[in-house]
Structures are given as structure tokens and as C-alpha cells.
């Protein structure tokens, strides 16, 4: 009987030590930030969340709604598969957008693009998924919430577009 108790206590202590060791190992280095390691690995390219403040952008709009909650609910029912679809943004984040949309479009489901090619490609993707898509703009970003910049090809063909277009390039958005 004493032997069984000793074995039980040994197993219990082993389990406690094992859980503590896993907890310490899971924390990583002291002072390391939370999140996936790739977020803080300098060898992994980072794409900044750029709202495009002051830029003329094209928006692919999936709908306009009077409240943020209605926009969130509608967005939850739109599936783009494994990729991010629309972002919920206030219509007032883009100069000229409320007038373009008309009605009470206080919040929109939108994804922003710097190039017409990027906007058209995304609109085609949305249509193939059975999701509404309307290209609107160009409109000027007033620096509202992030709405997807950085997910299109650079016109030079050198990877993703990670910088604002020049004024000359922006003029071709019409």
C-alpha cells in the first residue's frame, strides 16, 4: 500500500514538474513579445498596415450599411475562402465616398487598392465567390482604418506594391 502511495506521489510530482516545464518553454525568451514568432523575425518580410492617408485610391465595395454592427453582420456572411475579403470601414474615412454611394452608407464593406488592375482582380475574385463587388473611386483616403493596402502587384512587376503611387500614377486611376 505504501508503495502505491509513493508511486502516486511520484507521478503527481512528475506531472506538476512537466506542466511547469512546458509553461516555461511556451513563454519563450524573457521579455519576448506575444504573437507568432514570424511577426518579430527580421528575416520575414513585413507588410505595414498602411491606411494610405492622402492617397487617391480605388475601393472595391461590397455594401453600405447604416451601422457598424449591420456591416459586421453582413461581412460575416460573405466568404472569400482562405483570404481576407472586405474590411468594415466608416464611409467618412474616404473623401467623396458617401456622395458616390448615396443613401445612408455610414459604414462600408470595402477593400482598398492603389491600382485599377488590383481592384479589378479583387472584384473578379469576389464575383467568382458570389459576393457583391463594385469598384468605386478614385476617392481620397483620410487615414481611417486599414482596408487592405499592400495586397496587389507593383506595376513594375517586382512583387507586392508596398509604397504609394506617384501623383502621375495616381492620375491614371480614373
Q: Can you offer a commentary on this structure?
A:
With 174 residues, the protein is an alpha+beta fold. A 5-stranded antiparallel sheet has the order 2-4-1-5-3. It starts with a helix and ends with a helix. It contains 5 helices and 5 strands, in the order αβαββαβαβα.
Please report which band the strand proportion falls in: under 5%, 5-15%, 15-25%, 25-35%, 35-45% or over 45%: 15-25%
Write down the overall geometry: elongated
Number of domains: 2
- Class computed from helices, strands and strand pairing: alpha+beta
Question: Using DSSP, what is the number of strands?
Answer: 5
Instruction: Give the N-terminus to C-terminus distance in angstroms.
Output: 86 Å
Order of helices and strands: HEHEEHEHEH
Sequence of strands across the biggest β-sheet: 2-4-1-5-3
Radius of gyration: 24 Å
Q: Largest sheet, described in full?
A: 5 strands, antiparallel
Number of helices: 5
Low-confidence stretches: none
Give the helix proportion (percent range). Answer: 25-40%
- Average residue pLDDT: 77
Characteristic terms for this protein:
alpha+beta, 5-stranded antiparallel sheet, 174 residues, 2 domains
Write a short abstract of this structure.
The chain is built from five helices and five strands.
Helices and strands in order, then pairings?
Blueprint: H1 2-27, E1 56-65, H2 68-76, E2 87-90, E3 94-95, H3 97-101, E4 107-113, H4 116-128, E5 134-141, H5 167-171
Antiparallel strand pairs: 1-4, 1-5, 2-4, 3-5
Amino acid at each position: 500500500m505504501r508503495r502505491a502511495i509513493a508511486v502516486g506521489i511520484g507521478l503527481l510530482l512528475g506531472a506538476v514538474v512537466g506542466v511547469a516545464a512546458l509553461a516555461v518553454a511556451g513563454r519563450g525568451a524573457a521579455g519576448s513579445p506575444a504573437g507568432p514568432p514570424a511577426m518579430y523575425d527580421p528575416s520575414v518580410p513585413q507588410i505595414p498596415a498602411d491606411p494610405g492617408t492622402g492617397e487617391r485610391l480605388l475601393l472595391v465595395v461590397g455594401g453600405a450599411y447604416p451601422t457598424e454592427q449591420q456591416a459586421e453582420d453582413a461581412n460575416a456572411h460573405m466568404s472569400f475562402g482562405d483570404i481576407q475579403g472586405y474590411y468594415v470601414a466608416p464611409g467618412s474615412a474616404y473623401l467623396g465616398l458617401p456622395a458616390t454611394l448615396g443613401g445612408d452608407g455610414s459604414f462600408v464593406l470595402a477593400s482598398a487598392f492603389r491600382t485599377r488592375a488590383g481592384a479589378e482582380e479583387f472584384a473578379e475574385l469576389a464575383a467568382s465567390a458570389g459576393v457583391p463587388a463594385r469598384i468605386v473611386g478614385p476617392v481620397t483616403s483620410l487615414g481611417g482604418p486599414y482596408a487592405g493596402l499592400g495586397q496587389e502587384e507593383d506595376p513594375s512587376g517586382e512583387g507586392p506594391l508596398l509604397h504609394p503611387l506617384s501623383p502621375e500614377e495616381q492620375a491614371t486611376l480614373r
